[in-house]
Amino acid sequence: MHLQVKDLVKTYETVRALKGVSFTMESGTVVGLIGPNGAGKTTLLKCILRLLRHEQGEIFYNRQLLLSRQEIAEEISYIPDQPIYYEDLTLEENLHLYAMLSGLSRQEFFEKKHILIKHLELEEYLGQLPDRLSKGNKQKLMIAMAFMKRFGLMLADEPFSGLDPSVIRNLKDLFVRVKKENKSVLISTHLLDLAQTICDSYIFLDHGSILATGNHEDILRIAGFSAEDKFSLEEAYMMLLKGE
Predict the structure, then answer these.
(1) Degrees to nearest 5, angle at CA 146 with 48 and 204
(2) Phi, psi (5° rounding) for residue 120?
(3) For residue range 89-137, what is the model confidence (pLDDT) as tens digits?
(4) How many other CB atoms sit within 10 Å of the CB of residue 100?
(5) Is the whole model's pTM more than 0.85, yes or no?
(6) C or N: which end of the chain has fewer Cβ atoms within 10 Å?
(7) DSSP per-residue letters across 24-74
(8) How far is Cα 102 from Cα 243, in angstroms, rounded to an integer?
């Protein structure tokens, strides 16, 4: 898997949400897309998914220019920031239907279901309609549906929102599994302390512009710190925001 975003520009009426965003991602990595609310994180993810049209720039997946949603439908999985499901189907039926639409065999479905239900603590809710679930359990359904799909890249928009600490730990384990399978995850979040426990590298975004990209040491250097200073990524991020 190789993802390249090059000079991406997206405007909503008079507001420029993305201002020439560029970065690359390689296989077997977990990358944190870090920024406050309104930074452009969700817009960026939706542009990569071709759910939004951008005015300028290019997106390449495995070094092929992406021109349509259909080209990446079988390659990229997505945990949205807002729940999307069939309201007349139970949680288990939603999972089963999504697995079928994703081309999973019956055996693959049951194998994935066993792992996901355990890690996301969903056993007691399988027979319930999603509208009756709490916000956190709806979020867990979105996560389970995303992992039901075969993919090379997962885009996760604030995936830890509303989750209990035990499920957060288990979700991080699932992301580690993805990495070991030489797949990749791009995680959008404003929780830098949580991102540090799972991410290999970072994209710092604010007001539609990239402030810095790279691993921990790269970010510290860009912020003007040395590795010997022992500053945290949060301190580096705050320094970058001040110097924007």
Answers:
(1) 45
(2) -100, 0
(3) 999 999 999 999 999 999 999 999 999 999 999 999 999 999 999 999 9
(4) 13
(5) yes
(6) C
(7) EEETT-EEEEE--TTSSHHHHHHHHTTSS--SEEEEEETTEE--SGGGTTT
(8) 45
